[in-house]
Amino acid sequence: MLADCLGTGCLDLNPKAFLMADLIAPVLSLAPIIVVGVFLVGLRWPAAKAMPLAYFTAVLVALLYWQLSAKQVAAATLNGLVITFTLLYIIFGAILLLNMLSESGGLSVIRRGFTNITPDRRVQVIIVAWLFGSFIEGSAGFGTPAAVCVPLLVALGFPAKSAVVSGMLIQSTPVSFGAVGTPILVGVSGGLDGKPEVVEFASRIGLSDWTELLPIIGAKVAILHAVAGTLIPLFVVAIMSRFFGPRRSFSDGLQIWKFALFASLAMTLPYVAIAHLLGPEFPSLLGSLVGLAIVVPAARRGFLLPEGPPWDFEDLSRWEESWHGAVEIKLEEANQTLSLWKAWLPYLVIACLLVITRLPILGIGDTLKSIALPTDPAMTKELFSTPVTIKPVQPLYLPGTVFLIACLVTAVVHRMNGAAIGRAFARSSRMLASASVALLFAVPMVQVFLNSEGGDAGLEKMPYVLAGSVASIAGDAWPAFASLIGGLGAFVAGSNTISNMTFSLFQFGVAERIGADPVWVVALQAVGGAAGNVICVHNVVAACAVVGLTGREGDVIRITFFVFLYYILVAGVLGMFLA
Predict the structure, then answer these.
(1) Looking at residue 471, what is its pLDDT?
(2) Cis peptide before 374 (omega within 30 of 0)
(3) Concatenated DSSP letters of 440-473
(4) CA distance 109 to 340
(5) Is the model's pLDDT at 539 over the cut of 90?
(6) Average model confidence (pLDDT) across the chain
(7) Residue 248 has what pLDDT?
(8) Residue 454's beta-bridge partner residues?
């Protein structure tokens, strides 16, 4: 593998040598990404049209230049379709819960509860997206925060487009420790996986086992995120006021800078401490809870909030057409006296179930994972006699099942009748259909890209070819680019975990080759992989789907891209100093 080659120094990182090499493969490996950038973001095509074009581009490159067999492309595509259906299952659960709460009157009660804390939309978005979203990320990952927080923001009265942008922007700082540390404990661990050069390095610095590197990497990741992520809540409110405010001005958001920084530090400081003391499982999960406990009472008392009337959006009648979701979220009044705790109970159920099923010490997650389809993993191993293996689906472990349980709780506790439940199901099914086309092509495109090794052309898989070309150009300045590779990996794969699994050993090898600290470089990879989530196509498609904003995915990425760029630049500068 290219990463192994890097570890032994057999890859020439001399820029002149690279310039003499074949440039076709690196350029072609970028082709699907270029198609996404040009048609989805540049020309603003809806994802339902742009993603099929990107998929067929990836297939043509794989068949004609990488010379993969048609069976391998088909296996990779089938793997993508399986992953797509799991994503659609999660999306459906999130949409259904939204519509159930809409019908029961729960959303009206929740909205009044937030208004009692503060009617200021800038504060509300920080509490819901930054703090509650970080908690859901720490619990479940897998794009779940957008599925929970985006519809909740819409229910509070936010434009659908603003809710999606805000929900995507926070998918950075908490992501490296999402799903109880999965991107580190599974992603980085799976990438390094006891390779000889990793074991030798661990021994050289006095560790008895290479796995002891993981908490060290996690602690460094937390430091990098704390520096880059401190401004994220301020960016969220400034971007919200600039693109969706009555005056279209950054200044309206920046007026709340004291509170935004306070809310940020209320999460990031305990987040760093927890990463150093407890390891990579709990920084996002516990850091966000500490932040909520500090920020909500402070907001209720107006602490650090500017003088003047609370900031709000314009009247609904003056919103731009592109801000609206395709499906109206109705705020029905409850047909009973519904208390605030009962209205919030479905979200509390989600939070509790996600935590108890993800904590390894409880073992519940392992039990749920043991129920998988197909029951015999050998059925989908090396599918069609290719290197592609489809991971069995674990339906009880998926966040979609947690959403459905929350829906059942809503129906019982909120005393919903059959007609209301039927309307919620019907609306949810229609909303799901609109997201299906884009995901049915986006995820298979990713799988063709990732599973492109072993072709007759003798080339490494496309991500390695792309990363190798950047490494050859960067040379000793590689730490400045390490997070970019992580970000591109997550942008394509839609997962920090997969990006880390794909590139961690590569990053480790490059660092040793140029004499940089491999621990810091792998940490930069993990930070970049987290930042890549803010522009990941299928995460944006999913977030848009839950509020009926299908077709506006490119508009969202055009806004979130600048925060991604900021994150990568800050990480790169830190990398040059620290690595």
Answers:
(1) 85
(2) yes
(3) HHHHHHHHHHHT--S-TT-PPPHHHHHHHHHHHH
(4) 6
(5) no
(6) 88
(7) 94
(8) none
List alpha helices for 105-195, DSSP H. Answer: 106-117, 121-125, 133-139, 144-155, 160-169, 178-182, 189-192
> What would the 3-class secondary structure string for 361-395 be?
CCCHHHHHHCCCECCCHHHHCCHHHCCCCCCCECC
Q: How far apart are CA 168 and CA 379, in angstroms?
A: 36
Confidence band, pLDDT 50/70/90 cuts, at residue 21: very low
What is the Cα–Cα distance from 68 to 405, expressed in whole angstroms? 43
For residue 455, the number of C-alpha atoms closer than 13 Å in the C-beta half-sphere is: 25
- Give SS3 for 568: helix
Report the chain's C-alpha Rg in angstroms: 23
Q: Are 522 and 176 in contact (CB under 8 A)?
A: no
Distance CA 218, CA 199 (A): 18
Query: DSSP state, 535?
Result: T
**How far lies 81's CA from each of 85, 105, 143, 227, 491, in Å?**
6, 36, 17, 38, 18
Distance (Å) of CA 128 to CA 224, 259, 309, 434: 24, 15, 21, 26
Give the long-range contacts of residues 297-303, CB within 8 A, separation 24 or more.
298/259, 298/262, 299/117, 299/118, 299/123, 299/127, 299/259, 300/117, 300/118, 302/118, 303/259, 303/262
Burial of 198 (0-12, 13-18, 19+ CB in 10 A): buried
Q: How far apart are CA 179 and CA 273, in angstroms?
A: 19
Tokens 């704390």 belong to residue: 226
Instruction: Provide the residue type at 263 as one letter.
Output: A
Which segment, 43-47, 68-72, 192-196, 325-329, is predicted with the most confidence on average? 68-72
Spatial contact of 169 and 149, defined as CB atoms under 8 Å apart: no
| 3-state SS track over 61-87 | HHHHCCCCCHHHHHHHHHHHHHHHHHH
Query: What's the pLDDT band for 159 if we cut at 50, 70, 90?
Result: very high
With tokens 């159920």, the residue in question is 349
**pLDDT tens digits along 270-287:** 999 999 998 898 899 899
CA distances from 564 to 81, 283, 490 (A): 28, 21, 11
Q: Crossing angle for the helix pair 479-493 and 553-578, nearest 10 degrees?
A: 150
Looking up tokens 């073992």, which residue turns up?
363
Residues near 89 by Cβ (< 8 Å), separated by ≥ 6? 395, 398, 400
Between helix 537-545 and helix 160-169 the angle, nearest 10°, is: 140
- Please state, in angstroms and rounded to a whole number, the distance separating the CA atoms of residues 533 and 232: 14
Q: Which residues contact 554 (CB under 8 A, 6 or more apart)?
A: 40, 41, 42, 43, 44, 45, 46, 47, 50
Backbone angles phi, psi at 393, to 5 degrees: -80, 135
Q: How many CA atoms lie within 13 A of 473 on its CB side?
A: 11
Distance CA 176, CA 282 (A): 11
Tell me what percent of the chain is helix, strand and coil, each rounded to the nearest 5: 75, 0, 25
Number of C-beta neighbours around residue 378 at 10 A = 8
Query: What phi, psi does 373 have (nearest 5°)?
Result: -125, 130
The residue among 396, 408, 460 whose CA lies nearest residue 104 is: 408
